[in-house]
Amino acid sequence: MRYAALLRGINVNSGTAIAMPDLRAVVERLGHSEVRTHLRSGNVVFTSADERPERVASLIERGIAEDLGRTVSVIVRTAAELRRVVEDNPLEVPDPTRFAVLFLSGPPDRATLEGIDPAAYAPEEMRIGARELYLYFPEGMRRTRLDPLLAKRLSGTWTTRNWNTVTRLLALAEG
């Protein structure tokens, strides 16, 4: 099975640095094959005989802790799940650098998210997916109003990728 693992919060600053060759080595040591990283932000695509994404994520987290001495949250999606994320996108993507998918470790709490007043983050947009949020930041992702609102209300593990990265990971996972 082909997977994409998304690591949360690495290579944001020198204190969160993980070299991509080191990450590939961890994933390979765990028995996965055809391991490729994309960018320096903790995206790794690989093939695994294990058909349990949650277990794969847990093993990668443990492997990073053991081999690299770092505690990192990992979200894993199959190639088919990434395909669904792209195909189910409910928003237009006029600029992929200002559009993102927030990947969640589990289903979102719809009542909590629907309770956020859209006027509080306008002109930004948010739509709720199965285990992701689709986000559009027409003024850019650096000074967003939506991120702080979500950070206060989200539970579990989550990480964000821009649309270009999402579609590139899909291409790598299906390739």
Characterization of the model:
With 175 residues, the chain is α+β, with helices and mostly antiparallel strands. It contains six helices and eight strands, in the order βαββαβαβαββαβα. The strands form two sheets. The chain has a four-stranded antiparallel β-sheet, with helices on both faces. The protein has a four-stranded antiparallel β-sheet with strand order 6-7-5-8. A hairpin with a 3-residue loop joins β6 (125-128) and β7 (132-136). α1 packs across α2 (53-68). The radius of gyration is 16 Å and the shape is globular. The model has no long low-confidence stretch (mean pLDDT 94).
Task: List the keywords.
175 residues; alpha+beta; four-stranded antiparallel β-sheet; 6 helices; 24% strand; globular
Largest sheet: 4 strands, antiparallel
Helix content: 25-40%
Output the helix-strand order.
Answer: EHEEHEHEHEEHEH
What is the radius of gyration? 16 Å
Largest beta sheet: strand ordering:
2-3-1-4
Strand content: 15-25%
Could you say which structural class the secondary elements and strand pairing correspond to?
alpha+beta
**What are the segments in which pLDDT stays under 50 over at least 5 consecutive residues?**
none
On the 0 to 100 scale, the average pLDDT is 94
First and last CA, distance? 12 Å
Number of helices: 6
Strand tally is 8
